[in-house]
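Researcher: Structure for this, please.
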Amino acid sequence: MEPITELRSVDGPVVYGYLRLTRTSAARRDALVMSLTAYCRQHELTLSGLFTERGDSRRGAPAFVGLLDVLELPDVYGVVALTASHLGARGIVTERRRRIEEVGARLLLVRRNRSHRLPIPTPQKRDVP
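Model: Predicted structure, C-alpha cell format:
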C-alpha cells in the first residue's frame, strides 16, 4: 500500500530569496534568512537560493542581476522578499518589480506593509447613570 499524498515527499514551486542589507549585523541577517525560510516552509515553496545585496543599491546591484538570470531558468515560480523595501530604495522598487514580472516570475512578499497590523483600540468613555 502506498503512503497517502500528505506523507509523500513532494517538491513545492521553486523560488529564490532576495534581501537588501545595509549596515546589518550577522545576527540580524540570520534572523531575516530564517524568516524567509520559515515562510517558504509554511507555504510549501522550495527555496533554491538566496541573493543578498549589500550596501547602497545605487552603486550597482550584482545580486539583483543574478536573480534575474536565475528567473530565466525553467520551472522557477518566483522571488520571495520580506518586504517591497528589500527590492531597493523607493524609486527603484517599481522598476525592479516590473523586471521580475517581465520574465514571468511572481513576487511574493512575506510582509506587505506595516498597515496590516490591527490598531490598538482606545478606551471609550461611558456615561454612568
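Researcher: Any notable elements?
Model: The radius of gyration is 19 Å. The domain at 10-49+56-112 is CATH 3.40.50.1390 (Rossmann fold).
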